[in-house]
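I hope you will forgive my troubling you with a question about protein structure. Could you please explain, in whatever detail you think fit, how the structure tokens follow from the sequence? Thank you for your consideration; the sequence and its tokens are set out here.
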Amino acid sequence: MQGKKILVIDDDPLVLQMVKFTLSKHGAQICTAASGMEGLTLFYAWRPDLVILDVMMPDIDGWGICARLRQFSDMPILMLAALGSDGHIVRGLKVGADDYVAKPFAAKVLIARVEDLLRRAMMSSFPAR
């Protein structure tokens, strides 16, 4: 995770702070956004390696942001949401998320999921033999 750029989009300041603290300790560069529109703006300007995305936000919800990002990017997206039913998880994956973690979550689970997504993204960028 060392040096990887991760954009966290969530309207809960405590979640933003906890995710930033947790992933920064593992060497990631973290940029945070408290709304969907702010997140999209930062995405275009900062070009992160991975996005962590909440579902319920006041302007554009996570479903809409994920769908927009998938129109032009295959960068990993992890949905981190309070909506944790099977239906919500399936919807997140169908709109383009690579993984879905329900809140509340354990920091070590978040770290493992982020590392896995970054590893898979790096492996897919290498040419096949």
Observations:
- The mean pLDDT is 93.
